[in-house]
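are you around this afternoon, could really use another pair of eyes. what follows is a protein written twice so to speak, once as letters and once as structure tokens for the fold. i want to understand how the tokens follow from the sequence so walk me through it. anything you notice is useful, everything is just below.
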Amino acid sequence: MEFTGGTLVQLKFKQPTDASRIRAALDGAGIKGAEVQQYGGADEYTIRAQDKELVASQAAGAVKVEDDIRAALSKTLGADTYTVARTESIGPKVGEELSRRAVLAMVLVSLATLIYLAFRFEWRFGVAAVVATLHDTIITLAFIKLLHLEVSLTVVAAILTLLGYSMNDTIIIFDRVRENLKTSGRTTLHDVLNRSINDTLPRSIMTHATTFAASLALLLFAGEVIRPFAWVMTFGIFVATFSSIYVAGPVLLWIERKFPRRATSGAAARVADAKLKPAGEALRR
């Protein structure tokens, strides 16, 4: 709704009410396609509605929808059977600006990370990390679609948090790779990468376990408002762990094989001479 424009009305009824009665009242008043969702207890509901013609023609259209919802419920269920706890109205111009800023924020996060990694490590590490993060974003969006979660500002915040979380995990592994390359001797890059992943595995298990516990607590006990954020983060922990090991690593190996760096010693100098194993064999436990 934040991105398309519309109205959200949170209602609290004096008695538990079935969602079908609310939906029937809205349909009878000509408010089609409204989303009625139980919010908390059986006596609390949120209604998301949008009149596309009104929202497209004027910013005040969202407010008009709110008035229509109140009139429909008062006529069918009675004006004294409910109270309005909260209302939110988003106009089309605001929604368009929020959409643009959300996309811009994700692009800037990836760009800033790429620049940092290219400066701090090498451009190869930066590209591999960004590809892994892009993988996390696409998989998470598919998960959001599967669960039919509303793509609100809360969900966008969760995706940005996940980007930072995933990138941090990848950087930890790559930093160990850089340290091991200095003392690798005749060891090939895929063995150095495999060793680095195993070196950081205990740290990863402890970090992911505690983060998962916090996300699970939010998912179960934090309530409806924060629940979409918790869903994305809980799922994202698994995705970020997977991509840091099984996406970023193979991409780094592929880049190193296609564009070997110029070096005179260490594993980097012998990538061109070594016959690299396939990515799946290289990242063994």
Summary: Residues 264-283 have pLDDT under 50 and may be disordered.
